[in-house]
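Exercise 7. Predict the structure of Argininosuccinate lyase from Paragemmobacter straminiformis.
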Amino acid sequence: AANQMWGGRFAEGPDAIMTAINASIGFDKRLYAQDIAGSRAHAAMLAATGILTNKDAEAIGKGLLTVLSEIEGGNFPFRTDLEDIHMNVESRLKEIIGEPAGRLHTARSRNDQVAVDFRLWVRDQCDAAISGLTELMKAFLSQAEAGADWVMPGFTHLQTAQPVTWGHHMMAYVEMLARDRSRFADARARMNECPLGAAALAGTSFPIDRHATAQALGFDRPTANSLDSVSDRDFALEFLSASSICAMHLSRFAEELVIWSSAQFRFVRLSDKWTTGSSIMPQKKNPDAAELLRAKLGRILGATVALFTIMKGLALTYSKDMQEDKEQVFDAADTLMLALAAMTGMVTDMTANREVLAQAAASGFSTATDLADWLVRALGLPFREAHHVTGTLVALAESKGCDLPDLSLADMQSVHTGIRAEVFDVLGVENSVRSRTSYGGTAPEQVRGQVARWKAALA
Ligand code: ARG
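Solution. The predicted structure, encoded as tokens:
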């Protein structure tokens, strides 16, 4: 049988496989609340502008609430032959209220309808991402506050570089996550324009009030160009892009956790809640959650690339290609929210091994830069020469199988006669981190200042 929504010119119904490839109800049912909110705002506006009678608009508004409670109660008869959420809702509305249901679609098209539904949904996800990020930032802040002065090795190339503080390392993630939050906030602000009323693509001859529907749905204003309104998916792409960057940050900390929780490092202990055992090796405690978090970017970035590829080269305005937008965004959003929650739990529950961190901080000639700086400060050596002297001392220590602080003063003076006993003060890791007081540096006082600033900002 021909379709009841658009079947006027059709003699035959679709092939079963056509129905399967064409239908989006299997996934776009997730837009039901946004679809009903958009329709209610539209109906109220149609009444206020005299396009619909108050009586019809009231019947529509009430009927839509019945549909809403049916869906939320789990007893809504979703039908694949009705393609998508828009036609499922409208068709059910007709069963409930009869003839006035057919007037709801006046001055509207599924093209602006899906655009507004999806924007509302993505807007909510930006808010969810922002609150998930805020929780994760708080978890990193607590770690930073507790260990503002715990020394650990700082790495470049994953080779020991200079001692840093645990708090400083934790606060690096707070900065990254803060940028993520601002990307979602920024995207949210830009997407907050209402496409409803663009109709199919050209606008409508009915005297609609797009400012009223925009306001009713919490948008700042209506979109300004009807063609752009129905063909734009930038809001989804921005959400996916921000999600990808955020997931990339999570994957970096996940990798650090995998390394740090290994028996060779033992920098942190992950709680039982975020690890799993092995069915054959009884000693194992595997960092599965961290490994999965390391992987999730693959999925989110995949969705991002997919939607860019779908949108690339699409002539204006709406094409059915764009129906492929939703599953990508749904999956990326679900993945991101789960990842943020899992990372928050793991960071909250992890325990830094302060002694191991301190030992590791002191090994690997980590204070070589401090020694070179001392040669510049105390002896007036040019930095390049100081670098060379220090390198020679490192080689000497290495040949003796010891670290820099273990060399005797005589050893030191054999490389440079001017070296005095006070040099040993700068070779300790505690002094090293305490000395790095430049703004944004690793000194505990700097870290505490950053913690206080962020605590106030997040309170
Ligand atoms: N299910 C469609 C989508 O998700 C809704 C818009 C359909 N518009 C149309 N003219 N076929 O994109």
